[in-house]
Amino acid sequence: MVKDETRYACSPHEVKEMDTARLRENFLIEVLFEPDATRWTCSHYDRYMAGGIHPVKSALKLEPLDQLKAGYFLERRELGIINVGGAGKVQVDGETVELGFKEALYIGRGKREVIFSSNDPAAPARFYLNSAPAHKEFPMKKVSQADAEVVILGSLETANHRTINKLLVNSKVETCQLQMGMTELKPGSVWNTMPAHTHDRRMEVYFYFEVPEGQSVCHFMGQPQETRHIWMQNQQAVISPPWSVHAGAGTSNYSFIWGMAGENLDYDDMDKCAINDLR
Hints:
Elements: E1 2-7, H1 12-15, H2 20-27, E2 28-29, E3 38-43, E4 49-53, E5 60-61, E6 77-83, E7 88-92, E8 95-99, E9 104-107, E10 114-118, E11 127-133, E12 141-143, E13 149-153, E14 162-168, E15 179-185, E16 191-192, E17 197-198, E18 202-209, E19 217-223, E20 226-232, E21 236-240, E22 247-250, E23 255-262, E24 271-272
Protein backbone atom coordinates (compact mmCIF):
# COMPACT_ATOMS: atom_id res chain seq x y z
CA MET A 1 0.00 0.00 0.00
CA VAL A 2 1.34 3.41 -1.01
CA LYS A 3 -0.01 6.67 0.39
CA ASP A 4 1.13 10.09 -0.82
CA GLU A 5 0.27 13.75 -0.46
CA THR A 6 1.47 16.98 -2.07
CA ARG A 7 2.58 20.18 -0.33
CA TYR A 8 2.70 23.36 -2.39
CA ALA A 9 5.26 26.13 -2.02
CA CYS A 10 4.29 29.10 0.16
CA SER A 11 5.82 32.57 0.20
CA PRO A 12 6.92 34.38 3.39
CA HIS A 13 3.95 36.73 2.97
CA GLU A 14 1.46 33.84 3.13
CA VAL A 15 3.19 32.14 6.03
CA LYS A 16 3.18 35.19 8.29
CA GLU A 17 -0.63 35.19 8.09
CA MET A 18 -1.08 31.48 8.92
CA ASP A 19 -2.64 30.26 12.14
CA THR A 20 -1.43 27.12 13.91
CA ALA A 21 -3.63 24.74 11.92
CA ARG A 22 -2.62 26.13 8.51
CA LEU A 23 1.05 26.19 9.45
CA ARG A 24 0.93 22.52 10.42
CA GLU A 25 -1.11 21.61 7.35
CA ASN A 26 1.49 23.12 5.01
CA PHE A 27 4.76 22.11 6.65
CA LEU A 28 4.37 19.31 9.21
CA ILE A 29 4.55 15.65 8.14
CA GLU A 30 2.75 13.93 11.01
CA VAL A 31 2.87 10.27 9.92
CA LEU A 32 5.81 8.68 8.12
CA PHE A 33 5.60 5.04 9.17
CA GLU A 34 2.66 2.69 8.89
CA PRO A 35 3.03 -1.11 9.11
CA ASP A 36 3.45 -2.73 5.69
CA ALA A 37 2.94 0.57 3.91
CA THR A 38 4.86 3.29 2.08
CA ARG A 39 4.09 6.94 2.77
CA TRP A 40 5.35 9.91 0.76
CA THR A 41 5.02 13.67 1.08
CA CYS A 42 5.91 15.49 -2.15
CA SER A 43 7.01 19.10 -1.73
CA HIS A 44 7.06 21.69 -4.51
CA TYR A 45 10.20 23.15 -2.94
CA ASP A 46 12.90 21.74 -5.24
CA ARG A 47 10.54 18.80 -6.01
CA TYR A 48 11.76 17.19 -2.78
CA MET A 49 10.14 14.05 -1.39
CA ALA A 50 10.25 12.72 2.18
CA GLY A 51 8.74 9.41 3.19
CA GLY A 52 8.90 6.20 5.12
CA ILE A 53 8.74 2.48 4.34
CA HIS A 54 7.89 0.17 7.25
CA PRO A 55 7.96 -3.51 6.18
CA VAL A 56 6.70 -5.79 8.96
CA LYS A 57 5.01 -8.93 7.62
CA SER A 58 6.17 -8.64 4.02
CA ALA A 59 8.73 -6.97 1.78
CA LEU A 60 7.76 -3.70 0.11
CA LYS A 61 8.74 -2.51 -3.34
CA LEU A 62 9.55 1.11 -4.19
CA GLU A 63 6.66 2.05 -6.47
CA PRO A 64 6.41 5.06 -8.82
CA LEU A 65 3.82 7.70 -7.94
CA ASP A 66 1.34 9.11 -10.44
CA GLN A 67 2.77 12.63 -10.17
CA LEU A 68 6.25 11.43 -11.18
CA LYS A 69 4.96 10.40 -14.62
CA ALA A 70 7.75 7.82 -14.72
CA GLY A 71 7.96 4.13 -15.51
CA TYR A 72 9.81 3.47 -12.27
CA PHE A 73 10.59 5.59 -9.21
CA LEU A 74 14.27 6.26 -9.89
CA GLU A 75 13.91 6.91 -13.61
CA ARG A 76 14.74 10.61 -13.04
CA ARG A 77 15.43 10.65 -9.29
CA GLU A 78 18.01 9.76 -6.65
CA LEU A 79 17.20 8.31 -3.22
CA GLY A 80 18.68 8.55 0.27
CA ILE A 81 17.76 6.06 3.01
CA ILE A 82 18.51 6.03 6.74
CA ASN A 83 17.21 3.15 8.85
CA VAL A 84 15.75 4.34 12.17
CA GLY A 85 14.36 0.94 13.22
CA GLY A 86 15.44 -2.68 13.46
CA ALA A 87 17.86 -4.31 11.05
CA GLY A 88 16.68 -4.68 7.48
CA LYS A 89 17.66 -5.24 3.88
CA VAL A 90 17.44 -3.17 0.73
CA GLN A 91 17.60 -5.12 -2.52
CA VAL A 92 18.58 -2.98 -5.50
CA ASP A 93 18.34 -4.61 -8.94
CA GLY A 94 19.22 -7.94 -7.36
CA GLU A 95 22.03 -6.70 -5.08
CA THR A 96 21.21 -6.92 -1.35
CA VAL A 97 22.48 -4.38 1.18
CA GLU A 98 22.10 -4.95 4.94
CA LEU A 99 21.09 -1.76 6.71
CA GLY A 100 21.24 -1.52 10.50
CA PHE A 101 20.11 1.19 12.91
CA LYS A 102 21.28 4.67 11.79
CA GLU A 103 23.02 3.32 8.68
CA ALA A 104 22.52 5.17 5.39
CA LEU A 105 22.31 4.14 1.75
CA TYR A 106 22.45 6.24 -1.41
CA ILE A 107 20.82 4.88 -4.58
CA GLY A 108 21.41 6.75 -7.81
CA ARG A 109 19.21 7.43 -10.80
CA GLY A 110 18.37 4.55 -13.09
CA LYS A 111 17.99 1.71 -10.59
CA ARG A 112 14.77 -0.04 -11.54
CA GLU A 113 13.82 -2.37 -8.68
CA VAL A 114 14.24 -1.49 -5.00
CA ILE A 115 12.77 -3.83 -2.37
CA PHE A 116 12.73 -3.22 1.38
CA SER A 117 12.42 -5.89 4.07
CA SER A 118 12.94 -6.41 7.81
CA ASN A 119 15.19 -9.08 9.26
CA ASP A 120 12.84 -9.68 12.21
CA PRO A 121 9.10 -8.84 12.15
CA ALA A 122 9.25 -8.45 15.94
CA ALA A 123 11.78 -5.61 15.50
CA PRO A 124 10.95 -4.24 12.04
CA ALA A 125 13.03 -1.77 10.10
CA ARG A 126 11.88 1.80 9.56
CA PHE A 127 13.45 3.18 6.42
CA TYR A 128 13.32 6.99 6.33
CA LEU A 129 13.52 8.15 2.71
CA ASN A 130 14.44 11.40 0.96
CA SER A 131 14.43 11.85 -2.80
CA ALA A 132 15.31 14.62 -5.26
CA PRO A 133 15.40 14.98 -9.05
CA ALA A 134 18.64 13.73 -10.61
CA HIS A 135 20.35 14.57 -13.91
CA LYS A 136 23.05 11.89 -13.79
CA GLU A 137 23.68 8.34 -12.54
CA PHE A 138 25.99 7.86 -9.55
CA PRO A 139 26.98 4.56 -7.88
CA MET A 140 25.07 3.14 -4.93
CA LYS A 141 26.92 3.52 -1.63
CA LYS A 142 26.31 2.54 1.99
CA VAL A 143 27.55 4.84 4.77
CA SER A 144 27.54 3.84 8.44
CA GLN A 145 28.19 6.14 11.39
CA ALA A 146 31.74 4.79 11.48
CA ASP A 147 32.19 6.04 7.90
CA ALA A 148 30.58 9.43 8.49
CA GLU A 149 32.31 12.79 8.56
CA VAL A 150 31.77 13.78 12.19
CA VAL A 151 31.68 17.32 13.60
CA ILE A 152 31.05 18.19 17.25
CA LEU A 153 29.57 21.63 17.87
CA GLY A 154 28.13 23.71 20.70
CA SER A 155 28.48 23.26 24.43
CA LEU A 156 26.46 22.17 27.44
CA GLU A 157 26.62 25.75 28.73
CA THR A 158 24.60 26.96 25.73
CA ALA A 159 22.42 23.81 25.70
CA ASN A 160 23.44 22.90 22.13
CA HIS A 161 26.24 20.33 22.52
CA ARG A 162 25.71 18.01 19.54
CA THR A 163 27.34 15.56 17.18
CA ILE A 164 26.76 16.05 13.46
CA ASN A 165 27.15 12.91 11.35
CA LYS A 166 27.53 13.84 7.69
CA LEU A 167 26.41 10.67 5.91
CA LEU A 168 25.21 11.20 2.35
CA VAL A 169 27.17 14.38 1.63
CA ASN A 170 29.47 15.27 -1.25
CA SER A 171 32.61 14.65 0.83
CA LYS A 172 31.48 11.01 1.24
CA VAL A 173 29.14 10.17 -1.65
CA GLU A 174 28.71 11.47 -5.18
CA THR A 175 25.16 12.77 -5.62
CA CYS A 176 23.37 15.12 -7.97
CA GLN A 177 21.86 17.36 -5.29
CA LEU A 178 20.60 15.23 -2.39
CA GLN A 179 22.42 15.61 0.95
CA MET A 180 21.55 13.82 4.22
CA GLY A 181 22.97 13.53 7.70
CA MET A 182 22.07 13.04 11.32
CA THR A 183 22.54 15.23 14.39
CA GLU A 184 22.51 13.77 17.90
CA LEU A 185 22.12 16.07 20.91
CA LYS A 186 24.06 15.30 24.07
CA PRO A 187 22.16 14.78 27.37
CA GLY A 188 21.35 18.17 28.87
CA SER A 189 21.33 19.92 25.49
CA VAL A 190 18.12 20.79 23.65
CA TRP A 191 18.89 23.37 20.92
CA ASN A 192 19.66 22.35 17.35
CA THR A 193 20.98 24.57 14.54
CA MET A 194 21.53 27.49 16.85
CA PRO A 195 22.65 30.08 15.87
CA ALA A 196 20.06 29.69 13.13
CA HIS A 197 20.60 30.27 9.42
CA THR A 198 18.88 30.33 6.04
CA HIS A 199 20.15 29.22 2.63
CA ASP A 200 18.31 30.51 -0.43
CA ARG A 201 20.14 28.01 -2.62
CA ARG A 202 18.52 24.89 -1.15
CA MET A 203 15.56 23.69 0.90
CA GLU A 204 15.59 21.25 3.79
CA VAL A 205 13.50 18.68 5.67
CA TYR A 206 14.07 17.82 9.35
CA PHE A 207 12.98 14.44 10.74
CA TYR A 208 12.93 14.31 14.54
CA PHE A 209 13.37 10.96 16.29
CA GLU A 210 14.63 9.47 19.56
CA VAL A 211 12.35 11.96 21.30
CA PRO A 212 11.61 10.32 24.68
CA GLU A 213 8.02 9.38 25.49
CA GLY A 214 6.15 12.32 26.96
CA GLN A 215 8.59 14.87 25.49
CA SER A 216 8.33 17.14 22.42
CA VAL A 217 10.39 19.37 20.16
CA CYS A 218 9.46 22.93 19.24
CA HIS A 219 10.63 23.60 15.67
CA PHE A 220 11.20 27.22 14.62
CA MET A 221 10.74 28.42 11.06
CA GLY A 222 10.00 31.59 9.10
CA GLN A 223 12.10 34.60 8.18
CA PRO A 224 14.58 35.68 10.87
CA GLN A 225 12.48 38.74 11.73
CA GLU A 226 9.14 36.91 11.45
CA THR A 227 9.54 33.48 13.07
CA ARG A 228 6.85 30.89 13.70
CA HIS A 229 6.93 27.61 15.60
CA ILE A 230 5.51 24.09 15.24
CA TRP A 231 5.33 21.63 18.14
CA MET A 232 6.48 18.19 16.95
CA GLN A 233 6.41 14.64 18.29
CA ASN A 234 8.68 11.64 17.87
CA GLN A 235 9.22 10.46 14.25
CA GLN A 236 7.63 13.46 12.61
CA ALA A 237 9.17 15.66 9.93
CA VAL A 238 8.90 19.30 8.90
CA ILE A 239 9.53 21.03 5.56
CA SER A 240 11.81 24.08 5.61
CA PRO A 241 11.61 26.50 2.65
CA PRO A 242 14.83 28.07 1.34
CA TRP A 243 13.91 31.45 2.85
CA SER A 244 13.20 30.03 6.30
CA VAL A 245 15.30 29.44 9.38
CA HIS A 246 15.19 25.88 10.69
CA ALA A 247 16.04 25.34 14.33
CA GLY A 248 14.48 23.57 17.27
CA ALA A 249 14.46 23.18 21.02
CA GLY A 250 13.23 20.08 22.82
CA THR A 251 12.00 19.35 26.31
CA SER A 252 14.75 16.67 26.29
CA ASN A 253 17.70 15.78 24.11
CA TYR A 254 16.84 13.97 20.85
CA SER A 255 18.20 13.21 17.38
CA PHE A 256 17.18 14.44 13.95
CA ILE A 257 17.94 13.69 10.33
CA TRP A 258 18.45 16.59 7.97
CA GLY A 259 17.99 16.24 4.25
CA MET A 260 18.39 18.94 1.62
CA ALA A 261 18.43 19.62 -2.08
CA GLY A 262 19.03 22.58 -4.34
CA GLU A 263 21.74 24.11 -6.48
CA ASN A 264 24.62 23.98 -3.97
CA LEU A 265 26.30 20.93 -2.40
CA ASP A 266 28.46 23.00 -0.03
CA TYR A 267 27.44 22.06 3.52
CA ASP A 268 28.64 25.44 4.86
CA ASP A 269 26.47 27.39 2.42
CA MET A 270 24.60 29.31 5.15
CA ASP A 271 23.40 32.86 5.72
CA LYS A 272 23.79 32.99 9.49
CA CYS A 273 21.39 34.86 11.75
CA ALA A 274 22.65 36.36 14.99
CA ILE A 275 20.68 35.04 17.95
CA ASN A 276 19.88 38.55 19.20
CA ASP A 277 18.50 39.54 15.78
CA LEU A 278 15.79 36.85 15.73
CA ARG A 279 12.24 38.07 16.20
